[in-house]
Amino acid sequence: MLQQFQDVDLIFFDPDNGIETQSVKIGQNGSSKFLYWSELRTTYQCGHSVLLYQHFRREERSNFIQRIVTAIQVRIPTADVSAFRTDHVMFFLVAQPEQTIHFRHQLPRIAEMWTSQLQVNICTTQGQ
């Protein structure tokens, strides 16, 4: 995939079950339904920003959002992370530093266009 998309700035992941869980290790039966932290990190390290689709899990939503944002920041400290939520799902934008200004200018526009369906929930600066 990385070779095929080497000239692409933004890669979208829509894993069936979301970000990896401890109960399913990479390479095990069913692991193809998850995006693993190593895959996210490798994609980012190859110069791509990433937009990740994630269903809410069975935990308080604000805590869940902050937990995932923090987990991304710990694994990719140079990334700028923004989160967008709907009633049922999240999107996490993991932006390359050189794309941060572009995405930051688009956030209010996205929030306005999708106001009834999408909420710009969290917008963090690099390394926070």
Topology (elements, then pairings):
Elements: E1 10-13, E2 18-19, E3 34-35, H1 37-45, E4 49-55, H2 61-75, E5 80-85, E6 89-95, H3 100-113, E7 119-123
Parallel strand pairs: 1-4, 2-3
Antiparallel strand pairs: 4-6, 5-6, 5-7
Cα-based radius of gyration, to the nearest Å: 14 Å
CATH class: Alpha Beta
Number of strands: 7
Low-confidence stretches: none
CATH fold-level assignment? Translation Initiation Factor IF3
CATH superfamily annotation: Translation initiation factor 3 (IF-3), C-terminal domain
Which assembly state applies to the chains in this document? single chain
Could you describe the largest sheet, including whether it forms a barrel? 5 strands, mixed
Order of helices and strands: EEEHEHEEHE
Structural class: alpha/beta
Number of helices: 3
Number of structurally distinct domains: 1
Distance between the termini: 30 Å
Examine the secondary-structure arrangement and name the CATH architecture: 2-Layer Sandwich
Report the sheet-strand fraction.
25-35%
State the helicity in percent bands. Answer: 25-40%
Mean pLDDT: 84
Shape: globular
Strand line-up in the sheet with most strands = 1-4-6-5-7
